[in-house]
Amino acid sequence: MLELRGVSIDRGGRRIVDGVDLQLRPGEHLGLLGVSGSGKSSLLKLAAGLLVPSQGGYRNDFAHPLLVFQEPRLLPWRRVRANVEIPLRAAGCGATEARRRAGEWLERVGLGAQADAWPGQLSGGMAQRAALARAFALEPDLLLLDEPFSALDPGLRASLGEVCRSLLAQTRAALICVSHHPDELVGLVDRCALLDAGSLRRFDIDDRRPGQSRDQVAAALHAALVHPGVLSR
Ligand SMILES: Nc1ncnc2c1ncn2[C@@H]1O[C@H](COP(=O)(O)OP(=O)(O)OP(=O)(O)O)[C@@H](O)[C@H]1O
């Protein structure tokens, strides 16, 4: 369980996040929206243990939070398979087990045939799938995605969203996904929160007008991004 009670974050002498309340239980999937600079990445870093709150109550019972960035950040001088194996070895996994798990997760993201390729030989979508395989192989109980599909075209964003959804269903990891694209969040998360001038507003996808299509929910989220006042605190 991740619990924030009245959490504020100051950075560079400025209050970035102001009095945020948030709860995330094991297996829950939360989308985080907000305009640029609203503090989304700072909240993810807090959940990853890379930042501490300046004020407020904070509890994080997730044992293995893992942050995935917008760029795949693969080591260009190591083959794709090694890119997945290296963090596993660093986490204490034996060589045989690391090789087995790397192979298995590369298969699951559809990169079995590219395991011996160099990162430079992959397309942007393939590289991001390799980054997802590397993340899931580490078996996080809390996955923190910071705009993971933003650099990709809409078709690839949708297909990587599907890959991610199916991997989450297999592992039952909790998720916080930051995105500027409501359409990529709908279907991936159970609820969304919108950071607006440091404060959090809720948007429960399941509770909101049952029967709404995905497109309608995405449109409502889009409207909330532009006019955050329509959402409840
Ligand atoms: N290391 C830092 N030192 C000082 N200020 C910082 C630091 N990192 C971020 N900030 C500031 O904190 C604010 C929030 O940044 P953050 O990256 O959390 O926002 P964001 O919503 O994720 O933005 P974006 O969507 O553009 O990635 C910004 O005004 C940023 O300039």
Automatic annotation (TrEMBL):
One of its GO terms (molecular function) is ATP binding. This is ABC transporter ATP-binding protein. Residues 2-222 form the ABC transporter domain. Belongs to the ABC transporter superfamily. It comes from Microvirgula aerodenitrificans. PANTHER family: ALIPHATIC SULFONATES IMPORT ATP-BINDING PROTEIN SSUB 2 (PTHR42788:SF19), TAURINE IMPORT ATP-BINDING PROTEIN-RELATED (PTHR42788). The keyword Nucleus does not apply. Keywords: ATP-binding, Cell membrane, Membrane, Nucleotide-binding, Transport.
